[in-house]
Amino acid sequence: MPQPQSTAFFLLLLVIFAALMCWLVLTRHVVLKVLAACLAFLPAVMFGVAAVNKYYDYYQTWNSAIADVTSAGVPGTVSVPVGVSQPGNEAAGRGVTSLLGVQVITKLAQTDGYTVTMRVRGQLSHLTRTVYVYLPPQYFQPGYRNYKFPAIELIHGYPGAPQDWITVLDVTSTLAGLISQHLAEPAVLVMPDANGARGISLQCLNSLDGPQDATFIARDVPDYISRVLRVWPPGRAWGIAGYSEGGFCAANLGLQYGRYFGVAGVLSGYFSPADNQEGTPPRLVNPFGGDTQLRRENTPMVELLRLPPGASIPQFWIGSGTDRADARAATAFRQLVELRQPAVQLEFVRGGGHTMATWRVLVPQLLKWMTPKLAINVKLAQARARRLASHHLASHHLAPRRPASSVPQPRSRTRRVPAARTDHPLGMVRSA
């Protein structure tokens, strides 16, 4: 069967439409004329939809279109109905089979990786959303049995769904191929539902008196994934990236939650928030309730200038087509980021517009840039953990022992100060 962007499909629609129009003209019965007119309407509409699909290069196969339109998810994935706050899941989840409740075919997973669908309930945001997680082949290989992986959180655009990263942009196969060619490093890909439903646009913001989308994406999802899988906690070994509206999310959350992400990628993003699309039917809603201060704090172009010197922000990578608006926004954002980070990488796709075709070209470049940096951050975290363990062990052995005496020794009056707590075991390495 011809695929949705093929020339054969367009010719087929034209032939069907022409045949129905001939029937409409030649038949003498009124009922048949009405029937022919109604039937001719269908290929005409399909032709228009297919033309839009081809222009934006969205669905290349019928499987990706059906999975997206029906919200059926990604073929071949396993759905895991677990909640973030259920006791006991964290310990059991470190073994993939016990987490999924199904038997994973290890030989296939060691070659191709494994994609799982989860329903995650946020402890802080109280939102429950679908999250797709891709585990690379190395996750199942014996040589990585004790390795904690870095992770990249991928945010989709609007309108769109998290599975678009898999069915349309082919990110999982792309990463596996790059790893096999030694052009990328293994990383877990985390693809959350950023909006909760079709026709909704929340821009990954904490809406005033509304959904706490930023908290769910930047806090709840990374915290949960790092508990149930062999993944580092939020910090320098986590990345965030997105396209279109997801690009705004990556830029804004990267700056707002700089301690939680080590790298960030922006693909054709914008850098000033618009109104949200909320409700049923969707309506425009000001996510800040008219609070100009909140709007400034969630405008990356403004926030970059407001951050104090030495503030922790991720390393940025920026990609765009040569579409005039996207290229200008990307160039302006890069210029401001370079006030804090020298030589920010900016990739342009020649002739590329604000389309899936552009982002499909940029995804391999993003992964080749981002995954090695995350792998380096993992090594730094491992070295830091070893130093802390050695220091703790040395302190334990060098601690003075209680004198061996039958006479009880007086208790020390020295007040013991508890060790300083940290939210991030990886530590906060400030960006240059």
H/E order of the elements? HHHEHHHEEEHHEHEHEEEHHEHEH
Strand-pairing-aware structural class: alpha/beta
Beta-strand proportion: 5-15%
CATH class of the largest domain: Alpha Beta
Summarize the structure.
This protein has 432 residues and is of the alpha/beta class.
Descriptive account of the structure:
The longest helix is centred in the last third of the chain and has 43 residues, at 356-398. The chain is α/β, with parallel strands linked by helices. The strands form two sheets. It has a nine-stranded mixed beta sheet, sandwiched between helices. The chain has a two-stranded antiparallel sheet with strand order 8-9. The protein has helices spanning 7-26, 30-56, 62-69, 89-92, 96-100, 106-112, 164-167, 171-180, 213-228, 245-256, 292-297, 300-306, 324-337, 356-398; strands spanning 78-80, 114-121, 128-135, 151-155, 188-192, 235-243, 261-267, 276-278, 283-285, 315-321, 345-349. The termini are far apart.
